[in-house]
Design a protein that fits this description.
Layout lengths: L4 H20 L6 H22 L16 H30 L1
Helix pairs in contact: 1-2, 1-3, 2-3
Length: 99
């Protein structure tokens, strides 16, 4: 279960990041469910990308089977930012297609 903890953190914070971005960028918001789905996808992708760059859970203690504060914060940051960014991108594409 511990090997899945960084991914779970990234997905949850991605959903939160997507909804926070939706509240801040009302013109790009897709509603709570749409923001959450885009955020979850963005959180997973953002966390994995940060891990590949050497930041976050995949780069620090998670590979060794342990979670330290840096890896948890990296997962939270990667998930939240990735979720917000992907929600904004999808919302902008949706708005552009509806015009």
């Amino acid at each position: 279960m511990e090997e899945y903890l960084p991914l779970i953190i990234q997905l949850v914070t991605g959903a939160l990041g997507g909804n926070v971005a939706g509240k801040l960028l009302k013109n790009l918001s897709m509603g709570t469910v749409g923001n959450s789905i885009a955020g979850i996808l963005g959180g997973g992708l953002g966390g994995q990308l940060l891990g590949m760059l050497g930041v976050g859970a995949a780069a620090s203690g998670a590979d060794a089977g342990g979670m330290d504060m840096a890896s948890i914060l990296g997962s939270v940051a990667g998930g939240g930012v990735g979720g917000g960014v992907l929600m904004a991108i999808v919302g902008a594409i949706k708005n552009a297609m509806s015009k």
